[in-house]
Amino acid sequence: MYFDRYDVHKVSYVDYVCGWNQKIMKFMGIWPDERGFAYASSYKVLFPIGLMFLFISLPQTTNLYFIWGDFDLIVENLSVGNMTTTIAILKTATFWSNGRYMKLLLSRMEYDRKEATTEENVNKMMRIADISRKITAGSIIMCNILVITYVILRTLLLPYTGRSLYYRGYFPYDTRTFPNFELTLIAQITAAIYTANNYTAVDTFMTMLMLHVCGQISCLRKTLTRLCSENNNNFRIDLRRIVEKYDMLNKYAETIEDRFNGILLIQMLGCTVQLCVQWYQAISALVDDDQGLLIVRLFFFAVYTTYVMLHIYLYCYVGQKLFSEGTKMAYAAYDCSWYNLSPNEARYLTIIMCRAQISSRITAGKFCTFNHQLFGSILKTSMGYLSVLYAMKTKDVH
């Protein structure tokens, strides 16, 4: 059923599995194409980075100096614009600077698709491709709904706040006069769209790469299980191919880990803080006397919190799946008919079993591994900070 939507002779596997990711990344200037001084695509990324930095990140970071001491303004500064945009800039720059490695990984992905000959392996790859496409489409829709909702919310608040920017910050000019105010708003809206789509595109792209690795290890595990049949006269040759493929897949995952573990640490810490301040703002909206836009504000907080948690969980899920798929290689070696082998050939399987115990991982700056346990720890930490903030808020109200 998957071939109704995909024809290997008309479109490459990478083009199919990337889908909207490829279109958005090309629009943002971070798709891993050939780069050089003669390529205009090499400089396209400077425009979104410049907008995000000059109209959201830098003004809001500078404004922290002037609002220091006003806890509510600091929370507003960190909750949506400043921290999210700064992380998006760092992710964009990191991804763009590692374009050569990403291109190699995509080439390897295309090779894996051409190498898959059995219907079982092809169907598995296409199922993973469809899952990746659905994750990307859902995340892109959600992030753009967030931007639209935030713009609507801030626009509805303009009669109460006056000529206040969507992202309040310090600018070296008067933002309350015409046309400075209108042009700055347009720039901030454009920067917010770039921020949301860059943030989402990088995360879903990384998820797609890791799901591909997990799928390939799963296919390789089944091949290893069927290796030790009695009529297999090419055991050593087939085993060597399996070992080489498994080693390549581990290097594939290690490349992603080495290139992005630093920015993943920043994202994990930033998202933990964002969850706290977002819930604080939700509590503030509930206990505030002015309930005029309560439903709209709570809707935005709910969608935004879901969006942040979803992206954290994506990394935790693929990190857990990568580790479990790697360790299952040891069970596959044990489950195969090793008793049909000679003692020397059976020893080869013990080496594979030992190697599989050291499975690849995705970490946050080498400090912790992304898995379900880490996701639970982030939620627990966020709820702990939330209880402190709630106590502070209720104390101020009373």
TrEMBL record:
Q: What is the superkingdom listed in this entry's lineage?
A: Eukaryota
Q: Where in the cell is it found?
A: Cell membrane
Give the matching InterPro entries.
Answer: 7tm6_olfct_rcpt
The annotated topology with respect to the bilayer is:
Multi-pass membrane protein
Which UniProt keywords are present, listed alphabetically? Cell membrane, Membrane, Olfaction, Receptor, Sensory transduction, Transducer, Transmembrane, Transmembrane helix
A GO cellular component annotation here is: plasma membrane
Question: Mind telling me which Pfam families this protein's record contains?
Answer: 7tm_6
- Please state the protein's primary subcellular location: membrane
Chain segments annotated as transmembrane: 45-68, 80-99, 135-157, 177-196, 260-282, 294-318
Annotated Gene Ontology MF terms? Answer: odorant binding; olfactory receptor activity
Please name the GO terms of the biological process aspect recorded for this protein, alphabetically: signal transduction
The text of the family note is: Belongs to the insect chemoreceptor superfamily. Heteromeric odorant receptor channel (TC 1.A.69) family.
**Protein name in UniProt:** Odorant receptor
What is the organism of origin for this protein?
Vespula germanica (German yellow jacket)
